[in-house]
Backbone:
């Protein structure tokens, strides 16, 4: 019975950190949209901004997960970054019926999100 509760607690903690990461993603993307509107940024600058948003959000998710889990923080951070990317990829797949930037963009984003979550877990 304790093991079941432990797994539930882990799942709830993971959901909390992922929800926090997605809230930050929304806020930062709104800020990026404001910058795009005000300064009429070029497409490469917007793409760099989106990548920065992904890395910062997965870093925050990994950091929060590491703070909540107390042990093996970098692994929990990596798992958070990986789940962050997986949900992001599923949403992108559902909306666009495919991945927009091709397979190299897909793999790069996967690595950056996982690395951001891992780093967040390590820093916590």
Residues:
């Amino acid at each position: 019975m304790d093991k079941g509760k432990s797994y539930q607690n882990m799942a709830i903690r993971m959901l909390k950190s992922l929800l926090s990461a997605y809230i930050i993603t929304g806020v930062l993307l709104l800020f990026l949209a404001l910058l795009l509107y005000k300064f009429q940024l070029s497409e490469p600058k917007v793409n760099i901004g989106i990548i920065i948003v992904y890395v910062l959000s997965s870093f925050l998710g990994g950091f929060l997960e590491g703070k909540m889990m107390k042990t093996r923080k970098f692994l929990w951070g990596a798992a958070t970054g990986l789940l962050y990317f997986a949900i992001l990829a599923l949403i992108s797949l559902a909306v666009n019926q495919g991945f927009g930037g091709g397979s190299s963009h897909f793999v790069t984003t996967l690595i950056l999100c996982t690395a951001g979550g891992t780093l967040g877990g390590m820093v916590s």
